[in-house]
Write a structure and sequence with these properties.
329 residues; alpha/beta; TIM Barrel; 10 helices; 29% helix; globular
């Protein structure tokens, strides 16, 4: 049995937020104030949800937040996920998206537990700029140490995600190109989406895919490489073959038609799209003693309501019902 939505898209990628707490307050994400937090479930409940989704054909599980490395029991959770098998009998592809602040200490234990890949969110490659974005002093050195620890632990390829905002950190495009070549990480630029708490998004702030490619060419031209249809990033290598970057362009070049993802928030709500204005309360169903069969039927109904596409930039666009930190990256 494989989850497929009414548009024929097969759902193979589950993203579970295991906390909406974070030790950073990045300016494009959070207001800087201590806003409301949603409840967290027990690790065992996330694992039950993951197991049921795997029975429905999920092959990739990504743990997100907030900052997932803040959760106690994370290594044990990854180990349990590592014992699950896809419908084809293969191990799950298990990934984590993290700000990297705690990664240096946890990279090897997570790799030993069965983690497949790690993505680090990092929006500048110089310490001063990094501190302004995260509102955390001395964080850059810790994140760089975490990236290097992940590489030593064999979590290849380490990906580094950078959200670009015009006039704020778009001067980091070429420095990130240098970083990709020198550190051996895949840098992925992400177009800024209207998901931040302060709701300051405008189309003018967005640095588009075409502009990134054009501006990187001042350093060294890029050559696009093949990627699968369900991948979120367009992939490029520098013309001399050293270093790879990706560009995730949901604003200027949406990839909704091949979306294979579904999300579960830290308080157990299914979100069928980042920009959903409604949620499906799986946690309440569990709390009321639902059987696995009842949960499967509920998940299938939710997937059948998956949106065809987002409507960013269109007249009448309605922002998502939660901001990114409360959805899960």
């Amino acid at each position: 049995m494989h989850l497929t939505d009414k548009f024929g898209r097969r759902i193979s990628d589950l993203r579970i937020s295991i906390t909406d707490r974070c030790n950073y307050k990045c300016v494009y994400c959070r207001s800087g104030n201590d806003g409301p937090q949603f409840s967290e479930m027990d690790i065992a409940e996330y694992l039950r949800i993951a197991r049921i989704f795997v029975e429905l054909g999920i092959t990739k599980v990504r743990l997100t937040g907030g900052e997932p490395l803040l959760r106690k029991g994370l290594v044990e959770m990854v180990r349990e996920l590592g014992g699950m098998r896809t419908l084809e009998g293969r191990p799950l592809d298990i990934a984590i998206t993290t700000n990297g602040h705690l990664l240096a200490e946890l990279a090897q234990p997570l790799a030993d537990a069965g983690l497949t890949r790690v993505t680090v969110s990092m929006d500048a490659v110089d310490p001063e700029h990094f501190a302004r974005i995260t509102r955390v002093p001395n964080g850059y050195e810790r994140v760089l140490a975490g990236i290097r620890a992940a590489q030593r632990a064999g979590l290849h390829p380490v990906k580094v995600n950078c959200v670009l905002l015009r006039g704020f950190n778009d001067d980091q495009i070429i420095p990130f190109g240098v970083f990709a070549r020198e550190e051996g990480a895949i840098v992925r630029f992400i177009e800024f989406m209207p998901l931040e708490e302060d709701r300051v998004w405008t189309p003018e702030i967005v640095i588009t895919l075409d502009e990134i490619v054009r501006r990187m060419a001042a350093f060294m031209p890029l050559r696009e490489v093949e990627h699968s249809r369900s991948e979120t990033a367009r992939r490029y290598r520098f013309e001399d073959g050293v270093g790879e970057i990706g560009i995730i362009a949901p604003v200027s070049q949406p990839f909704c038609g091949h979306c294979s993802r579904i999300r579960v928030t830290s308080d157990g709500k299914i979100r069928t799209c980042l920009f959903s204005v409604r949620e499906h309360d799986l946690a309440a169903l569990m709390l009321n003693g639902a059987s696995d069969e009842e949960m499967i039927a509920f998940i299938q109904r939710a997937v059948d309501q998956k949106e065809e596409r987002h409507h960013i930039g269109e007249a009448g666009f309605i922002p998502a019902s939660r901001t990114m930190v409360h959805i899960g990256g």
